[in-house]
Amino acid sequence: MAYLSDFVKSTLSRVVLGKEIPAFPYNIGDRVESFNSTIWALHKGTKRDDNSPVSILCFDCVRQKDKLPLARNAFKKFRTIRHPDLIKYIDGVETETYIYIVTDAVTPLQDHLRSGLDPNLIRWGLFKVATVLKFLTVDASFIHGNIRTSSIFITKSGEWKVGGFEALSSLKEDQPAILTFAGLIPESNRYAPPEVRKKSWNAVKDFELWSTDTWHYACLIYEVYNGAFTNSEQLASPGKIPAEMAPFYKNLLRPDPKTRPSVGDFLDKGMQAKGFFQNDLIQIVNFLENFSVKEPLQRDTFLRKLDMQIDRLPQEFCKYKVLPELVQALEYGSGGAKVLAPIVKIGANLEEHEYEALISNVLVKMFASTDRSIRLSLLENLSGFIERINKKIVNDKIFPSMALGFTDTAPIIREWTVKSVLLVIGKLSDKTINYDLLRYLGKLQTDEEPGIRTNTVICLGKIAKHLNDGMKAKILVPAFSRSLRDPFAHARVASLMALNATADSYDKGDIANRIIPCISLTLVDTEKIVRVQAMRSLETFVKRIEKLIESMPDSAIVDTGRESPNGAPTTRSATPSTPSSETWAGWAVSSITKKLVTGDMQPQAVGSPRMGNNSPSPANTPVPSTTSNHGSGMSLSNAGGSNGLQIATEGRNGGGHGGHTINRYSSALAAVEADEAMAGGTGGWGNEDDDLFADEGFEPMEVHEPSTPSPMPSFSTMKPTIAQAPLRPSTSANSSMSLGGGNRTGGASARLGFGAMDDSGADAWDGDDDLFKSLNIGNSNSSNVRPPPPPSSTTTTGSGFVRKEEKMAEMARKREERRLRMAEAKEKKSQTTTLGARKI
């Protein structure tokens, strides 16, 4: 190593060339001022290579030249003796002026005693000192000769380490330092045992090796609990020493060194059942230091207890003593899966740089393990450490290993892998989420385990906010719709809840066309929990779509026949202005279309409309209209003294009301005219009529929404067909229409016709007032109102058929009336008076 090379060079320079050390690979920092009762000065330091902290013991060879043999003896013993409870030697160098000994970063015990120490840590410290003294005096045949508070140091884990090697020596050496130079140690007389005070340090060789260190160990116990003492008489009073330890402490202070027990005996007494060294902290340390040689059952039992006790242990002890032991056990396999729980619990108190150095690398390595128990334990404890790991490490190293669990043959691994997605989703890249992760979840939707399918749906619903918009539209609805058909009831409930939670992710088209139809199927589910959740979800989506369609226009139908003031086509509402018009007009047009298409309307309905049995009125000429309504639409046009009836029917699925179009109406009209021709005439409508109406100007009809529809003028001479009835509104000679009951076997039904009568003899107008109010038929020329002719002699038989002779007479009368109307229309046309049609 580098420091050995430097040390050799420095030794050669000093010995051969007599020069100072050329370089020292450590930075010497501030001195610890409280450490001033030994021949050493303690400095904080750092290693130049990695800036790691160290402690440096410095000895001034010039100022303390008389104590140089002690410093050189300590330097030698630091380099030659190793034990876990001795302060760890890292490097050292001796020059003409200084001796530097580099150790682990430590602090003096005296500083901790002034600030207060945890009682468990004190017992653990005394236990560690007793252990190292037993090793030195029994196993290595050394005498320490300098056990006191100034010789004890504490690491950052709270572990006590023994230093003060100035007098450490073996009696087998040529010139043992303890016999020759022990008296040079500061305050050596205060700590000297009775036999030494009586004679000299040479008396040590006359008794057991441990006798001196036993006395010094008793002095240490007293100072730890009671503080410094000034004379040996004070040691007789235990003071604050624990009662269970006090009797054995007194044995250590026996004046006769031959009856004085060894520190090893004191240690054995303390480790007995209910002994003073039997506490949780010491037991934990002892087990961890021998963890790899314990039986699996013993390790499992210990780890369970440790997980419960970890919160009661000193934090620094857990971080720097327990944690490294557990990480080592996990990394090398001796700890198994159960060691992970206490690791995660302790790691929560670490700083970021400490966590990365001590835990992160090991966890990444463990995720690649093929041991299912370790992988399961990692997934179960994922919430305790995933937030402490860098995003790049999670995305590039941990997730690829974790994703193997999606396809694992063990169901419990698959289930915990799905649950773990929610914990790592925030650290994954968009590509990993929208492609790799969704592919795994899609496969798990068809898993054989119902619980895994359910958790997959829940997981997908919770990570939806992390998906991009394209994947939301493509994945969510099909995934949740599939789960609505799952045979497991809880999977269906989970799907409904997931849809509910992601309602803001869907547009109105998806909600109306894909989601609501799927939810509606579960309203009659065999399980009540599904039905209840389905109703809640349906309410959510209905409210959602109501909000989404608020900004939609009333209608997308454009009226091309009328322009707005700025010249653009106007959009007209397809909804009738009033509920009554929607009900009555829709019913009326439906009836009209049905009768025209089926041919059930009598010829008189086209040839001669009437207000009663014998009420003549101008003929109605059907004109196809482009105006549409909900299922059917109807408008009237009045121009040039003639009455024009426009009927438009349009179905929602491409056909008109009842499945017929206006072409059907033209066919029915042609059939009626053919019947009239067969009856003995052309009906008075030839090519000349076409010329007449071709010259008339039909203006676009306007939609009016009057608050109170205008009633039609009534005829004073109108009489009911069978019995007296109230007068009914009528139109002028240029615009007349009525609803009458048609002759139909089996009962009365309304139809568009004039002069018809139902079988029951009731007035065909009853109940139809609202229809005409809503239609608001205009009266353009009330002066041309013609009184109704006398009632016709036509009668109705019980079977509903008119005799042939009566029918022929009726047809002749119609032709005459038509001829008169044609003449009147031509006369008005010659006066160039044209009235535009008005639509209501």
From TrEMBL:
Region (Disordered): 556-585, 602-660, 726-815, 821-840
Lineage top rank: taxon: Eukaryota
Biased composition (Basic and acidic residues): 802-815, 821-830
Chain intervals with Polar residues compositional bias: 611-646, 729-738, 831-840
Limits of the Protein kinase domain: 1-277
PROSITE patterns reported in the protein's UniProt record: PROTEIN_KINASE_DOM
Biased composition annotated in UniProt, kind: Low complexity: 568-581, 755-764
PANTHER family: N-TERMINAL KINASE-LIKE PROTEIN (PTHR12984:SF3), SCY1-RELATED S/T PROTEIN KINASE-LIKE (PTHR12984)
Protein name: Protein kinase domain-containing protein
Species in which this protein is naturally found: Linnemannia gamsii
